[in-house]
C-alpha cells in the first residue's frame, strides 16, 4: 500500500517585484521625509550604542 506524501506548496516569492516596490516607495518620498527617517535611525543608533545590558541573578 502506497502512502501519499504530503507536500506543502508555498507561493513562489516574487523578490524582484518586492524590491521594485520598495525602490518606488523610497523614490517617491520627499527630501523632508528622507531627512526625518534618517534622523530617527540615527537617534535609534545612538540609543542602542549607549545601552547597557544588566543581568540579574534569578533567586
SSE layout and pairing:
Layout: H1 15-28, H2 31-49
Describe the structure.
There is one protein chain. The protein is an all-alpha fold and 59 residues long. 56% of the residues lie in helices and 0% in strands. The chain has helices at residues 15-28, 31-49. It is flat, with a radius of gyration of 23 Å. The model has no long low-confidence stretch (mean pLDDT 86).
Can you summarize this structure?
The chain has helices at 15-28, 31-49. By secondary structure, the chain is an all-alpha fold.
Fill in the keyword field for this structure.
59 residues
SSE sequence, one letter per element? HH
Backbone structural class? mainly alpha
Which stretches are poorly predicted, pLDDT < 50 over at least 5 residues? none
Tell me about the biggest sheet? Answer: none
Strand content: under 5%
Give the helix proportion (percent range). 55-70%
In round numbers, the mean pLDDT is 86
Task: Give a count of the beta strands, DSSP E runs of length 2 or more.
Answer: 0
Straight-line distance between termini: 57 Å
